[in-house]
Design brief:
The protein is mostly helical. Helices cover 69% and strands 0% of the residues. The model has no long low-confidence stretch (mean pLDDT 84).
């Protein structure tokens, strides 16, 4: 079930990024630098959607959302959502249903309770 939750989180952030870029494209006048930024963010959204290099792309999404928020005033609540969710995704990782899980394997973190001893395996 945590893998499904992370899949939903990745999909939500990716769809927000792609939707915002498409709205920006439809708005009209884009210079070369804006086209490069939009293309890069759309590719990042697709990478998040499939779960490829998730922690790195999530950090990039958060930083680009901060840059967008600084460059355009007043603040947009959607941008703040992307910043918070991207930070959470960067810390949590891609989840079981991702390309990263296929490439690098799934990771499980076990936290021992008070009564349990941690086992070291050599």
């Amino acid at each position: 079930m945590p893998g499904v939750g992370l899949l939903l989180l990745r999909g939500f952030i990716a769809l927000i990024l792609i939707d915002q870029c498409l709205a920006y494209i439809r708005s009209g006048s884009l210079d070369l630098l804006a086209w490069l930024a939009v293309t890069f963010v759309i590719v990042s959204g697709i990478c998040l959607l499939i779960g490829f290099l998730t922690p790195i792309i999530a950090v990039f999404a958060g930083v680009s959302a901060i840059a967008f928020m600084i460059s355009t005033l007043p603040f947009n609540h959607t941008v703040i959502d992307v910043i918070i969710l991207a930070a959470a995704l960067a810390l949590l990782g891609p989840g079981a249903f991702s390309v990263d899980a296929c490439l690098f394997g799934r990771r499980e973190i076990l936290i021992a309770g008070k009564g349990h001893k941690l086992r070291k395996e050599i």
